[in-house]
Amino acid sequence: MKKIFALFLALIIINGVGVVMANENITLTYGDFYNVKDCLIVSQKVSSEGEGLGDTAVIEYQADSGRIKAVGLGSAVCKSLGKEYTVTVEKAPIALVMVNGQSNAAGDSSDYKLSPCAKGKYEGKFFVTNSMNSSADIINTTFENARLTAIDGGRSPKASGVWLNWSAAEACALGAKLSDLWNMKVWVVNCAICAQIIERFNPTEANHDSYTRSVYYMKYARKAIEDDKHYILDESKLGYFWLQGESNGFDRKNTENTMDQYMDAFMNMHNGFKQDLGIKYCGIWLVRGGVYSNNNKDFSMSGPRLAQIYMSNSNEDNYKDIYLILNTDIFKKDDSTKKYFEEKYSNEADFKEEFGYDMPKTSLEVKPSLHYAQKGYNELGNEAAVNINKIFKGDTKIKEAVLYDFDGNEIDKTAGLIFDLNKNQSEKYTVPMPKSIDFNAGQMLTLEAEDPSVISVDNEYFVCRAEKQGMTRLYVKCGNDIVASYKVMVLNKQPITIKGFKDFTQPVDLPFKGFINSR
Questions:
Q1: pLDDT at 54 over 50
Q2: Which of 188, 229, 318, 491 is the most buried (most CB within 10 A)?
Q3: Residue 293: alpha-carbon gap to chain centroid
Q4: Are 131 and 192 in contact (CB under 8 A)?
Q5: How many CB atoms within 10 Å of residue 235?
Q6: How confident is the model at residue 146 (pLDDT cuts 50, 70, 90)?
Q7: What is the average pLDDT score of the chain?
Q8: Cα–Cα dist 93/485, whole Å
Q9: In sequence order, what are the beta bridge partners of 433?
Q10: Is the dihedral of CA 17, 21, 27, 31 positive or negative?
Q11: What pLDDT score was predicted for residue 282?
Q12: Counting beta carbons within 10 angstroms of the beta carbon of residue 120, is it exposed (0 to 12), middle (13 to 18) or buried (19 or more)?
């Protein structure tokens, strides 16, 4: 009983008019909000560190929204509706990520001023810097020139139903979702720029201006965080998300890059970002194969697309920090699009209330070829955040997979792989990728031959090599689980005919035995 009474005394305060005040301790990070109505700030003390940063207050009350905001480092006391709050404000952890690539990732310019951006629950929680402009003067650009594109946490204003008004939907949705999942502020620096070929991001090429701008903008953001000193940068979250390659050139020309050419250019960029920016990972939105029309041919394979799958799956050390975080094929057909949204958002009314438009049911409503600001790009951001978070936590598992050959054709499971030794087809590249919507492709899939004497497998380079005539099966495995199985047939070399007393046909790889009487 004494303990209960002592605890009661510790938790209450009798104020001057005899009202019992319960005490609640709250810890906020710099820039955060806390909902509390009719608040009266009693006292506040800026910490010595906060004084050194120029802080003049710890919290401020925003009567119109009914909340307090952390505006400095230190502690404060406030009262509201029979409660007394002791508020401690600490430095805020923050993640810095980059969105990069070409116009599908860029969005367009916006007139929103530089400030802690998104409205509602995301206000002050994440920043989205506007995409680059090809005519911008790099040398004279200042931090204040950066502009923000987030509206309502990367979503359309509910009243207008207009999708983001030409701003980078996937970047906004990515920042909002990451701030939820990582429970910290997230600054997304959108360095994407329209109509840029991969060579412009290759620091070993003469005209690598897109690479230079990306490094420049990211360093500005980092310096702003370091100079402010109210934030603690989480170095483990420093990375970038890449959406480029489906039209690796200008004037909507399909790329002519081979898998190897694109991979070489990409890795020069990737290793440059690691050296110049200290990035820890890359998350790839898988590109389409063409951009000519809204049909299934948009999803045909190409050199860049195949290279991105390969880099995400390869077990080589060079690629181990590169992950495939979304396959845009999830919106390839109407039925798969409809299934995706119905499974993820069960209530259509709630969906429309949150996003301001009807739940998509056809591929034409969400496909990337609608460009910039369409409904599917919100999903690109959301899925990228969910999957990179799973990668960090290591809780991913692949349930289904598919094989592509080196030319980018999906291998038919019924026909399987066919090698013809007579045509010098002793080896083939076979690149596996996950088929399901929710996945991490990073270094989890391997190939295994049922009979290695018929076909051998090099899992470092995903090369299948025919060894001798015969039939076997090729398995795609995730750990010990078989997630796909393919028939393999190796055809023998063409038999030779020896001319003589009578023609005699003999397979060339068997020792000849017999008698030939020639005249």
A1: yes
A2: 188
A3: 25
A4: yes
A5: 11
A6: very low
A7: 76
A8: 46
A9: 402
A10: negative
A11: 96
A12: exposed
